[in-house]
Structures are given as C-alpha cells and as structure tokens.
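Predict the 3D structure for this chain.
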Amino acid sequence: MSESYVTLITTLTSAGVGGAVALVGVYLTNKGNTARQDVQLAHQTQIERAELLRARGEELYELIDKWLNNLFGYYMVKASVMQGKLSYNDGLDLELKNGKTNSGNYGRIQMLIDVYFPAIREQYDCVLSLREATNKHVFLHKRAYERGETDGTAFLKPFTDNQLSLEAAAEKLKEAVIAQVRAV
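Done. Predicted structure below.
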C-alpha cells in the first residue's frame, strides 16, 4: 500500500508541476502576445496619424493656395480700377463673375490650422493682418470713388506695397504648411 501511495503522490506531484509549468508557459506566451499587440497597435496608430496629418496638410495647402489665388485675383481687379483701366462697375462685374467660379470653403483653413497645425498659426495670422491692411486701402479707394474721385492713383502705391508684403507672407505660410507636412 505504501508503494501505491508513493506512486499516487509521484503522479499527482508530476501532474501538479506539469500543470503549473503549463500555466506559467501560457501566462508568459499571453504576456508576450499582448506586448507585441500593444507595439503593433501603437505602430499602426502612428502610421494612421501620419497619413491623416499628411492628408490634412495637403488639403490645407490646396485650400490656402486657392484662397490666395482668389484674393490676388480680386486685388488685380482693384488695382486695375485704381489705375483707371477699369471703371468701378466693370470691376464689380468681374468680381461677381469670378466669385461664381471661385467659391471655396475658407473657414476650413482656420479649422485645419487650429486642429492639426497650430504651429503655423502665427504665419496665418500675419497673412490675415496684411490682408486687412490691404483691404483698408480698397475701402478708402471705394469711399473716394463714391465721392466722385475717380482717380485712384493716390491709393495705388500704399495698396501695392501692402499687397507685396501680403504676397511675401503668403509664400511663408505656404512654406510653413509644406514644412509641417514634410515633418510628418
């Protein structure tokens, strides 16, 4: 009987040790798989975020480019009116014609900058500030034109100077967008 107890104890001990080793093996395998999945998920998330930022950056660049092209087209008409090449009414007709074909979602520019690219906010604000200063000259010319002062040459120099500053700031903004997209 003692021999059967020894055999039973040996069998139970072997089964217990084998089961414990199997449990430790399963635990270590699961822990390794979980760590691998975490690394894989983090990598996949990083790739998806980079793709999202790249896509949003490209969209932002396209929107800014379209906005600036439309803005400078508008300013070309205003400069022609100031130079006397166009009447004010002809200029307005051109603006209406261009406005119908040049619609854009320019509010999205600000949203994309605020959400995805806050590092370029300073360049964007600079462009807005210079646009406002340039528009001031357009407004002053309009008021003078409404008073019957059709010679806009007095407004042309400050208007052109502001527009050149605006163009330089616009190029810096576009370069900043490109730098942000490349950094992704």
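The longest helix spans residues 2-83.
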